[in-house]
Design brief:
Number of helices of chain B: 0
Helix content of chain B: under 10%
Distance between the termini of chain A: 36 Å
Structural class of chain B: mainly beta
Strand content of chain A: over 45%
Structural class of chain A: mainly beta
Distance between the termini of chain B: 39 Å
Oligomer: heterodimer
Shape of chain B: globular
Largest sheet of chain A: 6 strands, mixed
Helix content of chain A: under 10%
Order of helices and strands of chain A: EEEEEEEEE
Chain lengths: 108, 122
């Protein structure tokens, strides 16, 4: 089955840029979606279809996807961005949803 | 604004069946543009998709859970439900329901319910 690989953790200072990667075989051929999950809360969609933002999500959140790596980039990181982030795709071959293992973003 | 709310027992005994419902408000499960999904998260771990349903009843499930999962929809109550049979401690998790958007060959979940913790223990 299709596997998505994320780094367990990423650390960044406030005001800097955080980049969270999501690796998968030819992931550039798939639509990638990203969720933010703050402690004790339900996940929230922050980027869909590689690089689109739902209404209400700040422009600081952006996505990219090419080759074997997709990425979520958070510019001008704030303390409130500290959360777990998950990537997700639809595995058309297996006909099911796949989540990455998640990345904990720490704001130093 | 669409909202989803999970409900059901918070404690289930091993070998029994876990049953949860998700009530949709501010929208209809009959909407032809969406599927409706269940996702779970064991304590301290990542997200795992369980399965999804269309209002007409077509379903697809996580292969690792397929033999134990049944998802159904009740359009009259504007709800969809999850049944997971023969549960073990490994099924202890927060269970989320969510609306599943589909566009071409991709799909994503938005919004999500707040989640409900189900503990499997005797």
């Amino acid at each position: 089955s299709y596997v998505l690989t994320q780094p367990p953790s990423v650390s960044v200072a406030p005001g800097q840029t955080a980049r969270i990667t999501c690796g998968g075989n030819n992931i550039g051929n798939k639509g990638v979606h990203w969720y933010q999950q703050r402690p004790g809360q339900a996940p929230v969609l922050v980027v869909y279809d590689d690089s689109d933002r739902p209404s209400g999500i700040p422009e600081r959140f952006s996505g990219s996807n090419s080759g074997n790596t997709a990425a979520l980039t958070i510019s001008r990181v704030e303390a409130g961005d500290e959360a777990d982030y998950y990537c997700q795709v639809w595995d058309t071959f297996g006909d099911h949803v796949v989540f990455g293992g998640g990345t904990k973003l720490t704001v130093l | 604004q669409l909202q989803l709310q999970e409900s059901g027992p918070g404690l289930v005994k091993p070998s029994e069946t876990l049953s949860l419902s998700c009530t949709v408000s501010g929208g209809s499960v009959n909407n032809t543009n969406y599927y409706w999904g269940w996702i779970r998260q064991p304590p301290g771990r990542g997200l795992e998709w369980i399965g999804s349903i269309y209002y007409r009843g077509s379903t697809y499930y996580n292969p690792s859970l397929k033999s134990r999962v049944t998802i159904s929809v009740n359009t009259a109550k504007n709800q969809f439900s999850l049944k997971l049979s023969s549960v073990t401690a490994a099924d202890t998790a927060v269970y989320y329901c969510a609306r599943q958007n589909i566009e071409g060959a991709t799909t994503w979940f938005d919004p999500w319910g707040q989640g409900t913790l189900v503990t499997v223990s005797s």
